[in-house]
UniProtKB/TrEMBL annotation, chain B:
Residues 6-137 form the FAS1-like dehydratase domain. This is UPF0336 protein G3I50_12255. One of its GO terms (biological process) is fatty acid biosynthetic process. Belongs to the UPF0336 family. Coiled coil: none annotated. CDD domains: R_hydratase_like. One of its GO terms (molecular function) is (3R)-hydroxyacyl-[acyl-carrier-protein] dehydratase activity.
């Protein structure tokens, strides 16, 4: 596991490059197929509304997968992530148009730990709302 | 109705082995739009010190979630699955999942809490490879919303 960022080069407060991830209905269908999660709330508008949702929502695990890319793209090696957790606080509502929704993710180094490990705290927003809470990854740097 | 606390600590038998395929990893990486070469190019993965292509960090959830399904559908537990939402997800990785891994999941009910009428269940999935080594632990928090008053 060889991350490309050195432990010595970061400090608490170091910001990671923020990224935006578009999510369309087509992306949700593709993710359903790849992950095996075919819950209709992620592709069937009628079903989603019947269970009280405003519209089709993204898989929480899709949002979780996007958010960690701010860490893996920065570190250079996705295998350098040793710990990752999130809380699903608000759904990402995905309208049925060619634009869909936009997940905006920022992150910063929140703590330097032993053994070249750093904890990165992530913020994932969609439509002005925080969609992930307690979103934290621990990554091993070189 | 609150769930029976005696289920806390209960461990379910390991799942049959799931073989991680390189094309499945590619499909998953494409689905999340992640173009990192370590997911598709063995040489790129080796250059980073991995034995083969690796899977994106959240890939393993599709295996652990299926294993957790056995727990939530345990008729003795009596959880109303139609009211369940995914509250929280954590992974602790010993090493990344990689192509060729044959993985089994052992699920354990870590905790059961009742909060404002909701049942909150933590299910831990310990994922082992063919050699019996722990690869990753996934902790899935499921919230079964209280039934509405009639």
């Amino acid at each position: 596991m060889t991350a490309k960022v050195s432990y010595g080069s970061v400090e608490v407060g170091t910001e990671l490059p923020a990224q935006s991830f578009p999510v369309t209905r087509a992306a949700l269908v593709q993710y359903a197929g790849a992950s095996g999660d075919f819950n209709p709330i992620h592709w069937n508008e009628k079903f989603a509304r019947e269970v009280g949702l405003p519209d089709v929502i993204a898989h929480g695990m899709f949002t979780m997968a996007e958010a960690v890319r701010v860490v893996t793209d920065w570190a250079g090696d996705p295998g350098a992530v040793v710990d990752y957790g999130v809380r699903f606080t608000k759904p990402v509502v995905v309208p049925n148009d060619d634009k869909g929704a936009l997940i905006e993710v920022s992150g910063k180094v929140a703590a330097k730990l032993d053994d070249n490990l750093v904890r990165v705290d992530l913020v994932a927003m969609c439509d002005g709302k925080k969609v992930l809470g307690m979103s934290r990854a621990v990554v091993r740097l070189v | 109705m609150a769930l029976d606390q005696s289920f806390v600590g209960r461990t379910y038998p390991p799942t049959p082995a799931y073989e991680v395929g390189r094309e499945k990893i590619r499909e998953f990486a494409e689905a999340v739009g992640d173009t990192h070469p370590a997911y598709v190019d063995r040489e790129a993965a080796r250059a980073l010190g991995h034995a083969d292509v690796i899977a994106p960090p959240t890939f393993v959830f599709s295996i652990t979630y299926r294993a957790a399904g056995v727990v939530v559908q345990d008729p003795q537990l009596g959880l109303d699955y139609s009211r369940v939402v995914h509250g929280d997800q954590k992974f602790r990785y010993v090493r990344p999942v990689r192509a060729g891994d044959r993985l089994t999941v052992t699920s354990t009910i870590e905790s059961i809490k009742s909060l404002a009428g909701n049942d909150v269940l933590d299910i831990r999935g310990d994922v082992h490879d063919e050699a019996g080594e722990l690869v990753v632990t996934a902790v899935t928090k499921l919230v079964a919303r209280a039934a509405e008053e009639a």
